[in-house]
Amino acid sequence: MLLRLDAIVMVEQAGFEGIAASDADEAIRILESRTDVKAVITDVQMPGTMDGLELVRIIRRRWPPVALIVTSGQRNILETNLPAGSRFLSKPYAASQIDATLHQLIM
What is the DSSP pairing of strand 67-72 with strand 87-90? Predict the structure, then answer.
């Protein structure tokens, strides 16, 4: 939970609104209820019915314009496993990396 809150702070410091989801299912519900979501940041490992890799695949199919940032402390995650246009950030990542990546993907 603290990592999620840290990520929200980083997103907000980058000039965007941060919306937290406790798991992939909640993230999908948020996307279904809002039309203003420009990016999703997810960890590969997360609680719930699916992991972050499955979440970004679903998002890419259902909401193609949404920017996708996938994070993990595992070094063996390959960007080739991610949907087109996704970015991978290895943990620990810095606020400047979140800022730069969001601006590259959204602006």
Answer: parallel
CA separation for the pair 46, 20 (Å, rounded): 13
Cα 105 to Cα 75: distance, rounded to the nearest angstrom: 22
Strand partners, 42: 70
Least Cα distance to 28 among 8, 52, 10 occurs for 52
* Domain coverage including residue 60: 2-106
Q: Are strands 39-43 and 67-72 parallel, antiparallel or unpaired?
A: parallel
The overall average pLDDT reported for the chain is 90
Domain containing residue 30: CATH number: 3.40.50.2300
pTM greater than 0.85: yes
Phi, psi of 41 (to 5 degrees): -110, 125
